[in-house]
Amino acid sequence: MRVFIPNSAFLGNIDPFIRSIDLSDPDHLMVTGNRRWLSVHPVVITMIASLGLSVGPSNVTIDLEARSRHYLERMGLFDLLGAQRQSSIIEHEPAGRFIPLAQVKGSSELTRFMTEMIPLLHLEPDNALPIKYSISELVRNVLEHSESDAGAIVAAQFYKKSNIIRIGISDTGVGIRHTIGRSHLTESDLAAIRLSLMPGITGATRREGGTEQNAGAGLFFIKSMAAIKRDFFMVYSGDAMFKLLRSSKIIAKRKLNSDPFRDRHSAGDGYPCWRGTVVGIDISLSEPLEFSDLLGIINRTYVNTIRERKKSKHRRPRFI
Amino acid sequence: MKEISISELAGTFAENKDVAKKIREGTLLPSLMKGEEVIIDFKDVESATQSFIHALISDLIRRYGSGVLDKLIFRNCNNNVQKIIIMVSDYMQESEA
């Protein structure tokens, strides 16, 4: 496998990066990058870490200039992969800047991660809430559905200039199509991603309301949060990617869509086939969001969707 | 009447669904089966995830219908927690209607 890290890859322009990943030869990973500088979304780093863990440290080659290497070292890539650092850097206190790469493999480990790592971002309580919410729901999705021995790989970074927290979560598990396909017919990875973003759709059951442990609301909830705050949100699984694009303020505040394809988005297939799931999200701290208001809108959309879906399943008697 | 403290069991950010399941199976269900009311106290809980609340109460609504909400008393919920509880109870009742 080969990954070339460009000098810029954020959710808005991540498509060429994903298309450039070469996932052939699944036993080795070669990472190269722009020679001058790197500035990428944490989701890119989580993807590299996920691939690196899948092949083992002795099968990873990282060929980067010192300056670019430094960034990956700071994000904890070498520590996570057990690879040797090549430069001697002075570690700064990470508080206020980023959550370095972490591997979360279990439920109580996640709770510990939430308690210990989120404070590293040094956020006001109102700003911390959507971050905690997103990380908890996304990582639990991985733990419950991915069947990945490596668990979830997560990283986050605060970007001062844009006042945005960017979060990446990756796994190398079974992927969304496999999970959703347990209870729903899906003809493609993209169709499965679309279903997974609808409220009340879960791979655990076809029944409305889900199971006692799973409602099928996690991804819809996070996509909704991004939609209302006009933030980017991306899901990549199998050979497909869905990306929520930024919409105008007027549209974003009006209502939520239960069908992600009715949001302003880009979606497509034919990407390199990622065995597992990758989620990236931007959370702007400049767009204030009253969390309780968001909950109210999500509730209305959720209940209306269930009502409409149940109604659409009704069959009328035929008379001749 | 039984009382449980969510912050003592799940912390101030209630997100661990395994803990929710333990509370549901270990305390809520046995109490409800005896016909007891249960006070679920959210004092010091800054927020909860929808997944946590779903794991806590959705199965109770499915088993016993909306009437079970007369037996559960949610205490000291802030606005966010209240809205998440309302959301879960709304979509479960709509699902079971």
Structure notes:
- The complex is a heterodimer of chains A (320) and B (97).
- With 320 residues, chain A is α/β, with parallel strands linked by helices.
- Chain A has a domain at 98-313: Histidine kinase-like ATPase, C-terminal domain (Heat Shock Protein 90, 2-Layer Sandwich), CATH 3.30.565.10.
- Chain A has helices at 15-20, 42-55, 66-74, 77-81, 107-117, 125-145, 176-180, 189-196, 218-229, 249-254, 291-313, and strands at 2-5, 8-9, 29-33, 39-40, 60-63, 98-104, 152-159, 164-171, 233-244, 265-284.
- In chain A, the strands form 3 sheets. A 5-stranded antiparallel sheet of chain A has the order 6-7-8-10-9, with helices on both faces. A 3-stranded parallel sheet of chain A has the order 1-3-5, covered by helices on one side.
- In chain A, a hairpin with a 4-residue loop joins β7 and β8.
- The model of chain A has no long low-confidence stretch (mean pLDDT 89).
- Chain B has one domain (2-96).
- Chain B is built from 4 helices and 5 strands; from the N terminus they run βαβαββαβα.
- Chain B has helices at 6-10, 17-33, 50-64, 79-96, and strands spanning 2-5, 13-14, 38-41, 47-48, 72-75.
- A 3-stranded parallel sheet of chain B has the order 1-3-5. A two-stranded parallel sheet of chain B has the order 2-4.
- Chain B is globular.
- The mean pLDDT of chain B is 95.
- The chains are: A alpha/beta (320), B alpha/beta (97).
- Chains A and B meet through α5, α6 and α11 of A and α2, α3 and α4 of B.
